[in-house]
Write a structure and sequence with these properties.
By secondary structure, the protein is α+β, with helices and mostly antiparallel strands. The protein is about 50% helix and about 25% strand. The termini are far apart.
Length: about 180
């Protein structure tokens, strides 16, 4: 009997100490760990955001650097810039788009930038037009598509269409402009 009472006391003492440890000490550890995990997640999110911003700022700095001219008479800001025209015609040839007409417009100079307009008349499908605009968007130059007109050729009959012409192709007129930033003194 004495032995059972001693075992019961040991069991109660062990159970009470386990309950006390679990209630007063152990409950704090998971909460502290969860707080540390959340702090780590927040720090990781801030780090990733900072890396993205840094990368985008590098891209913006490169874009500005490639479109910055020293004056309004710089070769980058001239009418009918040959490297730009070569870039556009290269895209047109890569995408197998028919170029009907490409004419540069008269540049307009502001205090801090020069806008050089171009009018392109092409024959392409909507899919090729989308690819063309997407490729222009990836250019190192600042390019804006100001307007485009689509001649969907509904009035053309089957006999009036050209031989070997793509039925999905349409005549498109695009008015685009390049922007050249002028370095301020």
């Amino acid at each position: 009997m004495k032995r059972n009472i001693i075992l019961l006391l040991i069991l109660v003492l062990f159970g009470g100490s386990a309950w006390g440890y679990y209630t007063y000490k152990y409950d704090k550890y998971p909460q502290i760990i969860r707080e540390f995990d959340r702090d780590i997640e927040v720090s990781d999110e801030k780090l990733i955001s900072a890396q993205i911003i840094h990368q985008q700022l590098d891209l913006v700095a490169k874009l500005i650097e490639r479109n910055l001219a020293t004056s309004k008479n710089d070769s980058l800001a001239e009418d009918a810039n040959l490297p730009f025209l070569g870039y556009i015609t290269g895209i047109i040839n890569d995408l197998d788009i028919k170029l009907i007409k490409l004419e540069p417009g008269k540049k307009s100079a502001r205090l801090d930038y020069v806008r050089t307009p171009y009018t392109l008349t092409i024959r392409a499908s909507y899919r090729k037009l989308g690819k063309f605009i997407n490729r222009m968007e990836k250019s190192e130059r600042l390019i804006t598509v100001e307007q485009f007109e689509v001649d969907n050729a509904i009035r053309k009959s089957g006999a009036a269409m050209e031989k070997d012409a793509d039925p999905a192709a349409h005549d498109l007129v695009l008015r685009i402009s390049t922007l050249t930033l002028i370095k301020q003194r």
